[in-house]
Amino acid sequence: MNLPSRISFLCFAFTLAVPATQLIAETTDTNSPNVILLMSDDQGWGDVGFNGNEVVQTPNLDAMASAGVRFDRFYAAAPLCSPTRGSCLTGRYPFRFGILAAHTGGMRVGEITIAEMLQKRGYATGMFGKWHIGWVKPDEVSTRGFYSPPSHHGFDEYFATTSAVPTWDPTITPQDWDSWGNGPGEPWKGGFPYVHNGREAKENLSGDDSRVIMDRVIPFIEANQAKPFFATVWFHAPHEPVVAGEEFKKLYPKAGSKRKNYYGCITAMDQQVGRLRAKLRELGIEKNTVVFFCSDNGPSDGLAKKGVASAGPFKGHKHTMYEGGLLVPACAEWPGTIPAGTSTEVRCSTVDFLPTVASIVGDSMVQKATRPIDGIDLMPLIRGEAKDRDRDLFFGYRRLYQGIDGQSIISGDWKLLQEAKKNGRLRLYDLSKDPFETQDLSEEMPEQTEQLRKQLEELQASCQRSRDGGDYRY
């Protein structure tokens, strides 16, 4: 794949987290902008047109990136879904709130989410799509995770699944599927994986899953267009089981079966992004609505290894601490506020959403601190008023029963990572000179390695204090 020559590799100095408050101002501002967070699932950095993919058709995401800001170095907080999702809503590293991997916990009610912050300010709040930070059905039973639906975390309305569903006909196991205990053609996880405000959804669940989700988002926006609203839209696409409808597969006549489904699924999701953008303009509220888009982690392991999914030129994929596992496609649009054609190479992250939204709506929670908030306000970067980031970035996920304890820190131009596998070794990279992580400098530069190891250890200790109760009332 030919990626554009615009790729550059600047990174900047960082420091530790700053605090935020548990006290949220209870004021209503009818002039506050609407906020929409869009997120795809397992879409690699290289799986979108605006990052240089010349095959996959994403005209609406490309238009969104062109009309607003393109984040060239945007990181998920973890190389897999559940931890990243929690980071989007809390502005905190996953190791703080205790969701260390998929299906290993649920969002704690002691966390403060964007939805809770905005709900206190009079916003209507809705969550649509893949939740995956707690069960959405109270009678679900599993040895991992627990019931913690969106309604426990500030969402007035939700249409959500606990975890993955097929991206076409989400209630039916695909014919070629042989994993996760579901037989081909059988009902997917009981046949009714979606829950709408506490009840199993049983209508309008066939065809493209991204359309199924957007069919609930549009009415929410129409019903709340006269007041400020916050919509979290987390697509399942293109997470496995990845299936596309025939109309979308036909767009890729020269591709093999897996790529037809993968690219077709992404294009189907992109179509729904276009539908959303058109609706905002139809209602005349696009200039009062900021829309963010990103993926939750790098491309699927299996699909990346088969050459179907792409992390672009970057090393790694989902479940790895390398750039390909953490860097994701990202952009934002706010007509009249974010100038068209804006881009930034400053390293940004999913932990930045909460402080950015707080700044946009004028909430003071990030300034009045009683708990660590790890993200930064992205608006000064977008406006060109800031040229760097003022703190380190920390990533990780943990499954100790398999010996997996992957962690990483980026501090300035330096990245130290611990491989996400049993007895994973430490590796050191200078991202300014080696953005594709080809030369491990850990043995060549032991002092630099040790310095970053200590910084990583300090971040781990800070997160453990949060996780073990330091940020919660008793």
Automatic annotation (TrEMBL):
**Organism in which the protein naturally occurs:** Rhodopirellula baltica (strain DSM 10527 / NCIMB 13988 / SH1)
Q: Which residues form a coiled coil?
A: 442-469
Q: Which UniProt keywords apply?
A: Coiled coil, Hydrolase, Signal
Q: Which SUPFAM superfamilies match?
A: Alkaline phosphatase-like (SSF53649)
Q: Which InterPro entries match?
A: Alkaline_phosphatase_core_sf, Sulfatase, Sulfatase_N
Q: Which residues form the Sulfatase N-terminal domain?
A: 33-362
* Any one Pfam family match given in the protein's UniProt record, by short name: Sulfatase
Q: Which family does it belong to?
A: Belongs to the sulfatase family.
Q: Which GO MF term does the entry hold, naming one?
A: arylsulfatase activity
Question: What residue range is the signal peptide?
Answer: 1-25
| Name of the protein | N-acetylgalactosamine-6-sulfatase
